[in-house]
Design a protein that fits this description.
By secondary structure, the protein is α/β, with parallel strands linked by helices. It is 41% helix and 12% strand. The protein has a four-stranded parallel sheet with strand order 3-2-1-9. It has a three-stranded parallel sheet with strand order 6-7-8, with helices on one face. The chain has a two-stranded parallel sheet with strand order 4-5. Helix 3 runs parallel beside helix 11 and helix 5 (110-119) runs parallel beside helix 6.
């Protein structure tokens, strides 16, 4: 951005007002890692991150994750504010096929991030953007999906090296908002999250999302594994053949 320092004072700028000494990479952030590239590819293929939030014990987490995977979903997030979620990641991650991504959600501090990655989480998700978590994730080569709403927040996340961002809370913003923000930010991978189900998931994809985060529709305390599996299948079926406009 060109700044005026007073009438008649010229700054050392190149064509179009850019500083010739500025590193273009500084605006774009750290280059994507192999882990980032694989994560974006997995998002674009799966179209859904399943969110598991609840007061579960490790055996219950195992049943839920199995049901979601059997239903056709391959990205699952366990939210780490729950007391047994990190231990569930530790137990389950080594048992899952390589094409199934088990990650940690509601990661709000570096301590959360460290515990989750040490346990085997393959990606991190936050309700907001945290620069410290972003630095840690980049150093650990673990994809970080921070929550954003505004273009300013999107640019901050991108400058920190995030390969995708979580548009949250999606149901308060709507697909029209995503379509509008996607126009100038056409190269950003958006994952709307919050209040999404099979009835509107394809609308979000058509508006430019690369995937959607789905929690309440898929899993709630007391659900039987067969119910969870059927809902996962419903999400997969709803998104068959959908392509993003981005």
């Amino acid at each position: 951005m060109r700044h005026r320092h007073g009438r008649g004072v010229r700054t050392a700028e190149g064509p179009h007002g850019s500083d010739p000494n500025e590193d273009p990479q500084a605006k774009q952030g750290p280059a994507p890692t192999a882990g980032d590239d694989r994560f974006v590819a997995a998002l674009t293929k799966a179209r859904v991150i399943a969110i598991v939030r609840g007061p579960y014990q490790v055996p219950q987490y195992a049943e839920i994750v199995d049901a979601l995977v059997e239903g056709g979903l391959s990205l699952v997030e366990l939210t780490v504010e729950q007391p047994h979620a990190v231990e569930a990641i530790r137990r389950l991650a080594p048992q899952l096929p390589r094409d199934v991504w088990l990650g940690a959600g509601t990661v709000r501090t570096i301590e959360h991030a460290e515990r989750a990655v040490e346990a085997g989480a393959r990606f991190l998700v936050s309700p907001s953007f945290d620069a410290g978590v972003a630095r840690f994730a980049k150093e650990a080569d673990v994809p970080y999906l921070p929550g954003v709403q505004t273009p300013t927040e999107v640019d901050a996340a991108r400058a920190a090296g995030c390969s995708a961002v979580k548009l949250f809370p999606a149901h308060h913003l709507g697909p029209t908002y995503l379509k509008a923000i996607k126009a100038p930010l056409h190269d950003v991978n958006f994952v709307p999250t919050g209040g999404i189900g099979p009835e509107d998931a394809n609308t979000w994809i058509s508006a430019g999302a690369c995937a959607v985060g789905v929690g309440g529709f898929l899993v709630a305390p007391g659900d039987a594994p067969s119910e969870i599996r059927e809902r996962a299948q419903a999400m997969v079926e709803a998104l068959k053949g959908e392509k993003t406009d981005g």
